[in-house]
Amino acid sequence: MCFVHSGTAGNTGLVQQASAGSGAGVLSDLGTGEGRVGGMDIAGSGSPDVLAGPGGETVVDGYGRVLHNRWNRDLPPVATVRPGEVVQLLCRDALDIGEAARTMTPDGTLTIDLGLVHPLTGPVEVMGAEPGDILEVEILDVSPLVDFGYVVVSPTLGLFGSLRPELLAPFASWSEASQLSDPSAGPASGAIPRDQPYNSGAPFLQTFTFQRGQSDGCAHFTGADTGRRAQVPIAPFMGIMGVAPLHKGMYRTFSPDVSGAMGGNTDIRQVVAGARLQLPVYVPGAMFSAGDGHMAQGDGEVSGTAVETLMAVTLRFGLVKNTVIASPRAIVPSADPTQLAMPAERLSRGYYQTVGTGTDLMENTKTAVREMVDWLVTDQQLSLHEAYVLCSVAGDLKINETVDLPKWLVSMTLPRGIFV
Questions:
Q1: Which of 61, 196, 344, 367 has the lowest CB atom count within 10 Å?
Q2: Which is more confident, 272 or 17?
């Protein structure tokens, strides 16, 4: 989930460290073994029947309790592993609403405590990691702990700035620049009919369903406004993976430029199972944490959330000694991992593509997405909200060319075969 706000006043929801351990507090029938387990039952509403853990290795529980939701180099580790050992992290969803997402109303999204977003599982200490090293994170498996995920459209999220906070207000930013100087310019021109239902810009929540433990195939979409159905290809990954920051203090889960290049809310959908992520080490032990599980996301995550869910991620750590990098690096198995989930017949239907061009990359991006939303509304009879959500979870933004200085071209593509 892309999150750009600093939370509630007074930091009343701030969690630096609630507990430490290897997860035994919420796992039933573990027996002995100091937290080293194989398959297990996890207590709690919506938990999986059985979680297949990495046999004999450490499981860190960030599912049954919040461990932290700020980066802080002074946090003590909740688990310690050697290079080459396997660890499984149990992670809560990005907004930390869990089962409430099944029944939450759109208005309910306005009451989410922004101080609680991005609960993280960790920190995990990697023995032998020292400042000036690279921590290499091999992603062995990413699988959902529950059978549902959600996308939120709310005043605090998204490419188009914010929705107006009052109920049923229009999208504030869905206006042409010329209208800013003309208060009576009227609605921005576009392909969406003025009488199109649900075209309100109100808060919105869309759920998706899949199987517990499912790591390929598709998630089921039934539009909350229109009932329009789609099969969205999935490629589970963690939106947040990072290490303790370079500087002292508490930091929100932003992208890698917050405190060095320590990772954070990168939301790179290609870092799926089979990828190897490299992060610079700034403190002894590296102190790795993860969270923000995504079942499906397009490049850009334009509405502000992907298909958010509770996730288990299985990792193996390695070290590259005495090597400095300035930002995260990765070797990924595919530039478009969701193509692997699309049957050949659906891929054969091709892709929608829209473009934006001009001197401002962000405005070009907004144009490309706005045009895609317009096209989906008219061609697939989706509501504005549903189209925006699908752009976030299945639409890919790309910078196609920078040669025509000073103008740049941005496009969005979305597979036509997702609609059923």
A1: 344
A2: 272
